[in-house]
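Page 37, continued from 36.
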């Protein structure tokens, strides 16, 4: 199939498809005698996998190493290990984001607890003075 049909079937722009081809994610492209690209039916599935992988948080480099040259080349155990590692990474990020959220909410509460007779600058100094040093990131981090 030509790139226009592939773009229509996947909902991707032709430029995006050419980009994936250029960076090595879409490998099964043939050139016709007239120079037009010709894509196999599997290209639709490959592009859907790339799109789904990106939505799941995989980088293009990760997808390049994960996607086999042909769909028959999947290595079950390696795929499962990679997906589990990605889930663990997401869980670690969720924990970090929850901690950041808690710190920000605590900071908002401290700022909102400004005494009525205190101006904003003095309140900022008060809040900064009350911040615990053990909450600060390590130097150089």
């Amino acid at each position: 199939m030509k790139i226009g049909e592939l773009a229509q079937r996947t909902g991707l722009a032709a430029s995006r498809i050419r980009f994936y081809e250029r960076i090595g994610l879409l490998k099964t492209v043939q050139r016709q005698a007239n120079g037009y690209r010709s894509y196999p039916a599997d290209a639709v599935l490959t592009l859907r996998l790339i799109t789904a992988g990106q939505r799941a948080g995989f980088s293009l480099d990760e997808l390049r190493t994960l996607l086999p040259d042909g769909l028959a080349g999947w290595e079950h155990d390696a795929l499962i290990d990679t997906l589990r590692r990605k889930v663990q990474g997401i869980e670690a990020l969720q924990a970090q984001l929850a901690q950041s959220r808690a710190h920000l909410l605590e900071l908002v509460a401290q700022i909102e607890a400004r005494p009525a007779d205190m101006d904003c600058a003095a309140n900022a100094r008060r809040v900064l003075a009350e911040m615990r040093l053990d909450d600060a990131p390590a130097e150089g981090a």
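The chain has two domains: 1-58, 75-141. Flag for discussion at group meeting. Residues 76-112 form the longest helix (37 residues).
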